[in-house]
């Protein structure tokens, strides 16, 4: 059975359906990236998969006992609230201190355990949110535009970290992104969304799809393929840059 199956799902708001007749599956260990213009239903899809929204039609099935780690698009923390990173990572379930230290090291911020959340940079905070999601030992990690507000080096570093996490922990990853210019090198599948699935497949196949070009224009050139998929190619070569 797939980790998550979305079958014929329609989700509506007062203004009409945000998603219609959407069918997709996520398999164990794969990375799926969802792209689409603003208002295309990307965050609605995430909320529906998480069970926050209920479809008006169709159904979402999850593997029995599925553990989900979630990194939201943003999380507002009151700057006046005194809370250390270690304390934050122990909410709502107390975590072993050694495990917290190890997970912070794993996500690249080994020295922040005793720092106040309010003192962290945007990039540090995103890595702390990732550490929190990984402490659940998830079968699938869901990230909703996790690099919003980061500069380009920060974005590239975060995506590399996600790829490493998948390789080490074996969890599936569902990534929602507006970064058309930087799709992770390890993405197995890209789903192009605009209220429904316009096209899906390997990054280079989606880039060439007329539905993709109709949405994002010829001007994107090969922007989607900035980080090409090299699973089946010579790993001695770095990412191919397409201009």
Descriptive report:
There is one protein chain. With 243 residues, this protein is α/β, with parallel strands linked by helices. The protein contains 7 helices and 9 strands; from the N terminus they run βββαββαααβαβββαα. It has helices spanning 42-50, 85-89, 97-106, 122-134, 152-169, 203-208, 210-216; strands at 4-13, 16-26, 31-35, 57-62, 68-71, 140-144, 172-176, 189-193, 197-201. The chain has a 6-stranded mixed beta sheet, sandwiched between helices. Strands 2-1-4 form a 3-stranded antiparallel beta sheet, with helices on one face. Helix 3 packs across helix 4. The model is unreliable at 220-243 (pLDDT under 50).
Instruction: Give the overall average pLDDT.
Output: 83
Helix content estimate: 25-40%
Report the sheet with the most strands, covering strand number, pairing sense and barrel closure: 6 strands, mixed
Question: Could you name the ranges where pLDDT drops below 50 across 5 or more consecutive residues?
Answer: 220-243
- Please count the beta strands (DSSP E, at least 2 residues each): 9
Helix-strand pattern, N to C?
A: EEEHEEHHHEHEEEHH
- The CATH H-level homologous superfamily of the domain at 1-67 and 170-243: P-loop containing nucleotide triphosphate hydrolases
End-to-end distance: 40 Å
Q: Which percent range describes the beta-strand content?
A: 15-25%
Q: What is the C-level CATH assignment of the domain at 1-67 and 170-243? A: Alpha Beta
Overall, the morphology is: globular
Strand order of the largest sheet: 5-6-7-3-8-9
């Amino acid at each position: 059975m797939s980790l998550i199956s979305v079958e014929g799902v329609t989700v509506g708001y007062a203004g009409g359906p945000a998603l219609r007749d959407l069918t997709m599956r996520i398999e164990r260990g794969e990375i799926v990236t969802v792209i689409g213009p603003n208002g295309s239903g990307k965050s609605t899809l995430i909320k529906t998969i998480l069970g926050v929204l209920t479809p008006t039609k169709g159904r979402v099935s999850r593997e029995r006992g599925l553990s989900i780690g979630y990194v939201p698009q943003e999380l507002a923390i009151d700057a006046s609230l005194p809370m250390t990173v270690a304390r934050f990572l122990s909410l709502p379930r107390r975590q072993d201190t050694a495990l917290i230290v190890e997970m912070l090291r794993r996500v690249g911020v080994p020295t922040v355990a005793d720092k106040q959340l309010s003192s962290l940079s945007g990039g540090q905070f995103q890595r702390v949110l990732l550490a929190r999601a990984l402490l659940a030992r998830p079968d699938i990690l869901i990230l909703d535009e996790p690099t919003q507000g980061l500069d380009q080096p920060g974005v590239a570093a975060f995506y590399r970290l996600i790829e490493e996490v998948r390789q080490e922990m074996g969890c599936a990853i569902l990534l929602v992104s507006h970064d058309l210019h930087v799709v992770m090198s390890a993405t197995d599948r890209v789903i192009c969304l605009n209220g429904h699935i316009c096209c899906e497949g390997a990054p280079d196949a989606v880039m060439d799809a007329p539905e993709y070009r109709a949405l994002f224009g010829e001007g994107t050139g090969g922007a989607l393929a900035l980080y090409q998929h090299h699973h089946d190619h010579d790993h001695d070569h770095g990412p191919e840059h397409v201009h």
